[in-house]
Amino acid sequence: MSSEFKHWKLINEIQVTSNITLHKYVSLKTGLTLAISNVPTPIVSGTFIVATEPFDNSGIPHILEHLIFHGSDDYPYHGILDVITSRCLGELTNAWTEISNTSFTLTTAGSEGFLSVLPVYLDHLLFPTLTESGFLTEIYHINSEGGDGGVVYNEIQMCENNAWEITNREISKRLYQGSGFQWDSGGLTKGIRSVTLDKVKEYHKKVYLPENLLICICGRINSNEVFKSLTGFENKILTNLKKTNSNFSNQNFVRPFSNPIPKFLKSVNLTIDFPDDEGNSTGIVRIAYRIGNYSNFHNYLSHEIIWDYLALSPISPLVREMVDIEDPFCSSISVEYLEYSITSCVISFSGVPLNKLNLIEKKFVNILEAVAQKGIDEKRIKDLIKLNIRSHLNSLERKPNSVLSSVLSLDFVFGSHNNNNFSQLEELLKPFKFYQNLLNHPKSYWINLIKFSILEQPKIVIVGNPSHKLSIQLLQSNKERIEKRKEKIGVEKLKEYGLNLENAIKKNSLSIPTNVLQQFKQPNVSKIQLIPLITINNNKKNGNNDSNNNKGNNNKEKGKGKEKEKEKEKEKEKEKEKEKEKEKEKEKEKEKEKEKEKEKEKEKEKEKEKEKEKEKEKEKEKEKEKEKEKEKEKEKEKEKEKEKEYEKEKETEQKQKQKLLNYFQKDGITIDSIPFWIQLDQIPSYFVDINVVIDTSNLPNKYRPFLELLRELIFKTPLYLENNKTISHKVLVEKMERMTVNYSANIGLLASSEFEAGEFAQLFVIRMRGEIDQYQKIIKWMKRILWFTRFPAKRLRIATKTLLNQIDETKRDVEFMAWSTLKYLIFQKNKSNHVTNNVLIQKNFLSKFLNDLQQNESKSVQKFEKFRQLLFNNISNFKIQVASDFYKIKNPQIPWVKNNFIPKNLFDFEKFPLKSFIPSQFLPIQSSLLRNKLDHVHKNDNNNMTNDNNKHGSNSNNNSNSNDNTNSNGNGNENTNSNGNGNGNTNSNNQNQNNEKKSNDDDSANTETKNDMILASNDLQNTIKNKVIIIGFASIESGQLCHALPSIDNFENEDLPALMIAIEYLTKPESSLWKTIRGEGLAYDTSLTLLIEHGYIYFDIDSAINPVQALKQASKSIKNFIQNNQELNKDEIQAAKNRISCWNIQELETPEKVTRESLRDHFRGVKDFSIKNLKLIHAVSEKKILFVMKKYLSNLFNGNSQIVLIVNSSKIEKTIKDLQTIGMHSIHFNNLDDFNL
Ligand SMILES: [Zn+2]
């Protein structure tokens, strides 16, 4: 360490895993704590943690979290952090408030940008401006109509009355009475209304101190460089301390949470109401108790293990007896831990039928008593301990930053400072010793834990009861409160409030001087080190099969060679043109000289001389320019060298591919002899990750809604093996717990939640991930899951009921329901998994299936079995991705050989030849509602974009559905893309017909299809076309709006990079849209998102007090921008490009993400999409951005896009009228059930 950084005292050095080392320092000058974890990832992440104890429900810690971003002493510009972070290849900043601390994040690609932003960010934390104008817009204000507003106020209002928040508050209040943990750190609306800026400032002064700040950094970064970047900041702290005549270890600072916590001695039982739309759906029950001192980590882990045993999976006693039964007590059980200085455990039962609400506690106690009496399954306890060890390692590989920063934060707030025991950190990061210890505990240890540490502990039991009455009351009282206020304040004062707000908005929008921005230089992307991936596959149809690598690759190289030659030719032409221009210039100069000579004759000699001198100077300048040109040429040469390097890299990649192939292909087995599509991704990892991806496109539509039930059930059902052996669903779950770190089935790529499809919705994905030594076993069980699972009536009934109970819970989530409704409208009804998997379809579908199961059990079981076979018995619909460090596996090819992986006699391979997965099949299956989408865009271009909403309505009706296959993108250069688009649609139509034919073979197909699934699509579409769908909810105060506009659905579309920049440019913080919506406190948030694989651009407004006003302002802001040909700000374009680059690199952050990208690329139809996009993004011109803005966004908010708006039921009438004033027509539904079209 260089001597100038000596004051950074190293207090911990921990080797966390073989490739993660952590160093923790304390500054002896300022008291700052700094932890640097070296992790081999291209992303550098920072988490800055301040311990913030709340003292009431006014939400001051949360308020500060927001105000910190409104400028600092040295950088007094609202929002500057996001602007400079973007310039420095960073993601937008983020922050959150927990009960114990407030955390702020900074994430950049590479370390260069991180080091420039770090001191500025910290300046914001310790020296924020905390202005009145920031407080009014960001926190709270009374508007000119007497209502409440402000970003934080909206945020809290949105959630403070939901069942979880209400019960959370009761738990904290009673379990931790007399300490800071009893409060709500986010604040309650009542508290926020009463808070003042002075109180906030006072709190900041007491708590935001260097000795109370922990800086965690994770990634590839050099400690000395971090120290160096902190020098100025530390000096500033010292200067400030001198001013106040104090030093950092001043006696006045009371470390948060240092007061003792009063004991919790007496159990509490209570029932509380929470507002609910229906009031007759389901409730929740929560049981909480204290575990003990946080420093007793061994005890804490024991509780974690015993709760995994009791409630983790379908074989856990609580789940087995309360959820996984015919008449369930609840739809799910979850366990969470309050990690404070005294830890607690909260067990939650959700989706509880009303008649069971009061039975939960008794049942819970009975089950635990029975376990304590009958004894514990020791083997399973041990499995679970081992699972916890694996999961810890897995988390460190998958999300190192979040694991490390949360452990460091716990240790910082509750650990080392309070008892000065630094060794605790290492134990928390490497808890293996404790786990080993737990493995040796006898049965009696666990039984005593249940008996004495759980059952005999004082508890809080809260029964949460849904109440329609309460939701009405809450709204009423709020209304009355505002009316009273208006009367009290009077008109004049309200006007003043309005003016104050206007002034505050003006003050906040002070722009950042360019010279300030230019201090932050653009980092060099090429310096960033990526995680290496080598991928091989046996894709035969595409001709780039890796086993044939010589041929395939030659082709590729030739292709590239041609491109390069073309580029070279272009360059030559350019050079010729330049030479011509130079000649022209020379001629011009000659002419000028002649003229000058004439002039000279007229002028005096002295002047001549002067002019000559001037000319000489000019010539000198010209020479300088020539030198510059030479330099440019040198740069070009450098670039050429880079290209050569790139080619070398390609060569080594080829060698590595060959090496992997050689390793895999042994004993006469080749990758080609594997009779299904397989892709091997070689990656540095401790784990093996297997994804079986099944294309559901050809599934007959009437079976499609079963996918949700299959997802729910496939890992919880019995197996019937080839040798007539049966494996119960319990054993299956046990095996999974023993082998994997996680396993899942999903609709679409990436984990999706219930009733929501992930990316590429037409795929069904089964995934298992485990340690490398489990490779053979995992594949064996994957085979069993795919072909030997069976679904008896009882299992089907239980799963169906569980899902139905979950639907009641889901329907309370307004945001989720708004999106579900929108997807229901914009994707094809029977064909798209976005719709058939949708909560709006599933409720009826599952109720009917449950009824069928009761009426005619065997027929229903057969129907599901038919569905299973259709999905799994055609291996040409499979794509299998295996990601691991293959060199650590002996004979990795053997389990995949035909007779090992595929059950004998199951398939006739001649009948099912291997086909290619054609990416175009995964294009979105949109409904025809908005089908004539881009025609309209084209028209707009020609019409100079009129801004008449009514006219648009009639326009689009005339065009409707007529010509899907016309060159919809217009503009000539888009032929291939729009054809691709048209073909996509035609494909899906053909498949539709095929499916119908197939369905005809099935006796019940016709009638059932009509009854179950087919919606009166034409009528529906004519009714809703170009209309806003308004749905009433009784229990919400602010509105939720989402909006879809058809857009690019092809990952190779040449407009794509420009459109991504355009969207980012328009919606970034401090853009006019952002300022209008969030900056003025009209809504909590707004966003514009392009989902290419959906083929839509989505716009949404979250939690708006007046959503139509917000919509109007948003529309005005974007249209103004596009129509007035506003000039784009070069710095901001660069920032938008950099942010997108950062996201692209983030997609490659960990080994798991790298292989996930590799799988996505397959369905995108573009290899290395993220890396290619990086290059394309930076080449986009300003002109092109303006062009795509007009082409794709001028139609936003007009007809031919779809809007769903959820508002409070009492506001429907007003909303309809408000929409009319901005030329929008609407259809309303009083509640969700009415909407079920
Ligand atoms: Zn917030």
TrEMBL record:
<dbReference type="Pfam" id="PF05193">
    <property type="entry name" value="Peptidase_M16_C"/>
</dbReference>
<dbReference type="InterPro" id="IPR011249">
    <property type="entry name" value="Metalloenz_LuxS/M16"/>
</dbReference>
<feature type="compositionally biased region" description="Basic and acidic residues">
    <location>
        <begin position="554"/>
        <end position="652"/>
    </location>
</feature>
<dbReference type="GO" id="GO:0008233">
    <property type="term" value="F:peptidase activity"/>
</dbReference>
<dbReference type="InterPro" id="IPR007863">
    <property type="entry name" value="Peptidase_M16_C"/>
</dbReference>
<feature type="region of interest" description="Disordered">
    <location>
        <begin position="938"/>
        <end position="1008"/>
    </location>
</feature>
<feature type="compositionally biased region" description="Low complexity">
    <location>
        <begin position="537"/>
        <end position="553"/>
    </location>
</feature>
<dbReference type="InterPro" id="IPR011765">
    <property type="entry name" value="Pept_M16_N"/>
</dbReference>
<keyword id="KW-0378">Hydrolase</keyword>
<protein>
    <submittedName>
        <fullName>Presequence protease</fullName>
    </submittedName>
</protein>
<dbReference type="Pfam" id="PF00675">
    <property type="entry name" value="Peptidase_M16"/>
</dbReference>
<dbReference type="GO" id="GO:0006508">
    <property type="term" value="P:proteolysis"/>
</dbReference>
<feature type="domain" description="Peptidase M16 C-terminal">
    <location>
        <begin position="194"/>
        <end position="385"/>
    </location>
</feature>
<feature type="compositionally biased region" description="Low complexity">
    <location>
        <begin position="942"/>
        <end position="994"/>
    </location>
</feature>
<keyword id="KW-0645">Protease</keyword>
<feature type="domain" description="Peptidase M16 N-terminal">
    <location>
        <begin position="52"/>
        <end position="144"/>
    </location>
</feature>
<feature type="region of interest" description="Disordered">
    <location>
        <begin position="537"/>
        <end position="652"/>
    </location>
</feature>
